[in-house]
Amino acid sequence: MSHRTQLQAARAGIVTPQMRTVAADEGIPVESLREAVAAGRVVIPANRLHASLHPAGIGAGLRTKINVNLGISRDCPDIAREMEKVDIAIGMKADAIMDLSCDGDTRDFRRRVVERSSAMVGSVPAYDVLGCFPRDFADITGDDWFSVVEEHVRSGVDFITVHAGMNRESARRLERADRITNIVSRGGSLLFAWMKTTGRENPFFEHYDRLLDLCAAYDVTISLGDAGRPGCTHDATDGLQVGEMLELGDLTRRAWDRGVQVMIEGPGHMALDQIAANVLLEKRLCHGAPFYVLGPLVTDVAPGYDHITSAIGGAIAAAAGADFLCYVTPAEHLRLPTLDDVKEGIVASRIAAHAADLVKGVRGAQDWDDRMSRARHDLDWEKMFALAIDPEKARRYRAESLPEDEDTCTMCGRLCAVRTMNEALRA
Q: Are residues 57 and 180 in the same domain?
């Protein structure tokens, strides 16, 4: 048997170079990692054509990872500006970059991202269908959908989001649902509209094995998108969302049977008290596959601040067992994010991920906090800056308001509790 994928190799007892890299980065035994990959609890998205990749793992027992979305659109087609965002994401230690381009020269942009990024790269092939086939929606065929998937996996992306769990039955369920925002997933809405227009079944559901064979050929991880994810707190944990999750559980097992790595995408918008239960439900229904959450945003009334609503939900979700957080910027729901928006979104998401890792007991998480605490005890500002999630901002804030005494700050001055206690205990 040819071990074309990380999953196939792990099940055969083979430790791949990618597994060795991930185990070393995470500080865990490589055999433990291999067993987790073999069981489907961990994925290592690593397209064999992504030459610049530094592989990372997503899943149980590993550091919570974060993803950065970017991409060109009809209104904002500036490839150079989006490549600046790629550089920012890598510089700020994002674990993944997802190309959500939906217009313009998407092939060239995706090629550049894959060539430049040492982080794993994902994409959503469905976004490209209308651009690749500029004809009436009703004339797009099932083969057209698959040809776009094939172009994406050949481009070197490490994971693709495909909304294979939404079928004609779930589409009918949506039409009966008491939802305010219907479908907010772009890929899900395109497939729903195509099914509605043509009367045909979702091609990725109907010919799922064909999709899996494309992924296996390049060792592309499939991220099973949740077309029915809630787009507002009113719609959370309804029959449409949970029914699709049941379908995704079946599709997970089918992917594993063909040697394809799988992760599951989740909400969306959701009130605080539902988040942990949703994570547990996904882990149960989808057999422990890694969970990739899009937020969740815990309220709908904070446009301009949704990096905060998302970080709150992401921290709760990851603490409950979610493995991968999709960042949200302050521009969510409003416009394409600027470079500063991207930075704010990355920092908020990294804070949420690390806060959850402290709860999970991830190796090294508490040590990072302890080193910062010792630096604060020692009033060692340079070490504090070096340990900060955003050293640049910490250094700038300090420089903008320098104290009379260097071993204090301008909030407390000579009343600094740390300095007072250090002096008292030395006396």
A: yes
Last residue of a domain, one of 332, 360, 388: 360
Question: Residue 144: inside a domain, yes or no?
Answer: yes
Query: What are the backbone angles phi and psi of residue 180, rounded to the nearest 5°?
Result: -90, -40
User: Which of 91, 113, 99, 102 has its CA nearest to residue 346?
Assistant: 91
Higher pLDDT, 71 or 130: 71
Whether 421 and 332 map to the same domain: the answer is: no
Whether the predicted pLDDT of 1 surpasses 80: no
Mean pLDDT of the chain: 95
The rounded distance, in Å, linking the Cα atoms of 57 and 49 is 18
CATH number, domain of 227, equals 3.20.20.540
pTM, full prediction: 0.95
256 and 404 in a common domain: no
DSSP per residue over 61-87, as a string? TSPPEEEEEE---SS---HHHHHHHHH
Write down the pLDDT at residue 4. Answer: 86
∠ Cα 328 333 337 (to 5°): 55
At residue 61, φ and ψ (nearest 5 deg) are 85, -5
Task: Domain count for the chain, please give it.
Answer: 2
Q: What is the largest CA-CA distance in the chain?
A: 84
* 3-class DSSP state of 380: coil
The pLDDT-based confidence of 427 (bands split at 50, 70, 90) is confident
Rounded Cα distance, 89 and 97, in Å:
7
* Domain containing residue 179: 40-360
